[in-house]
Amino acid sequence: MLVVLAAGALALVLAAGAVVPALGAPPARVVSQGTTTRHAVALTFDDAWDPVAARTVFAILQAHDVRATFFPVALGVARDPSLWRAVADAGDEIGNHTTSHPDLTTEPSDEVIAEIVGARRTIEAATGRRMAPLLRPPYGRLDDRLVRLAPALGFPTVVLWSVASSDWAETDGSLVASRSLVGDDGAIVLLHVGPAATIEALPAIIAGYRARGFDLVTVSELLGEG
Ligand SMILES: [Zn+2]
After folding, report:
1. Which residues are paired to 189 by β-bridges?
2. Strand partners, 5
3. Distance 18 CA to ligand 1 centre (A)
4. Ligand 1 centroid to 105 CA: how many Å?
């Protein structure tokens, strides 16, 4: 369904091409899944308002030697920049999830730009390196304007997901684990840094995919760009 949504958004861009300002870059590629030719999945972690939860998730990933992709809000990164430098140093990928997590389809264009550019500045100052050229819009909400703007701001790929567990609303870690484990080759699994249920579920998610022989890779690796 998400693939259809994404394709719909791109079609809207083409249909509205005459009225969308030309920004000199092709529209963003919208992906919700990686290549199915590799037996791998990507775990992705959004939000991370709470540095304590972020440190816990990072520690679990480290303990299991897993590389993942984080989409933290920059306000959360600013609360614990040394953690995010360690995350980047460990080889985990950090993409853009804006500064304060607004619905980018309802904000004026200058705010959309400020949210994305400001997040990049904060995160790159924390990590001391360029961030991944991946944008995950809050709530997965995107429109033709965002798909046009993102590449011009340095984010040619918009990353959605193919597996979601509603972990943000769950208290039962075993439910989060079982829902997160339905992915197949190329799956992008959406999780959040914050819920206790996600932390509880994470070791089982890692073990479950590994038991089925999957490599756990970053989104860029899954897309063949890592
Ligand atoms: Zn989010």
Report:
1. 43, 163
2. none
3. 32
4. 14
Q: Is the Cβ–Cβ distance between 95 and 71 less than 8 Å?
A: yes
Q: In this structure, are residues 150 and 135 in contact, taking their beta carbons and an 8 Å threshold?
A: yes
Place of tokens 């050229």: 133
Q: Report helix angle 196-211 to 173-180, nearest 10.
A: 40
Q: Kindly give the pairing relationship between strand 40-47 and strand 215-217.
A: parallel
Mean pLDDT of 121-142: 98
| Selection from 117, 107, 161 nearest residue 136 by Cα | 161
| Cβ 83 vs Cβ 58: under 8 Å | yes
Place of tokens 């899944």: 33
pLDDT (tens digit per residue) in 13-68? 333 333 344 456 799 999 999 988 899 999 999 999 999 999 999 999 999 999 99
Rounded Cα distance, 115 and 97, in Å: 9
194 conformational bin, left if phi > 0, alpha if psi -120 to 50, beta if neither: left
What end-to-end distance do the CA atoms of the chain give, in Å? 26
**Ion ligand 1 residue ranges (Cβ < 5 Å):** 46-47, 138
Q: What is the pTM of this model?
A: 0.89
Structure tokens at 90: 């460990």
Taking the centre of ligand 1 as the mean of its atom positions, its distance from the CA of residue 104, in whole angstroms, is 12
Distance, in Å, from the CA atom of 205 to the CA atom of 189, rounded to the nearest integer, reads 10
Q: Which two tokens stand for residue 214?
A: 């999957």
Q: Which two tokens stand for residue 131?
A: 């961030």
Å from CA of 46 to ligand 1 middle: 5
Pull the structure tokens for residue 207: 């073990």
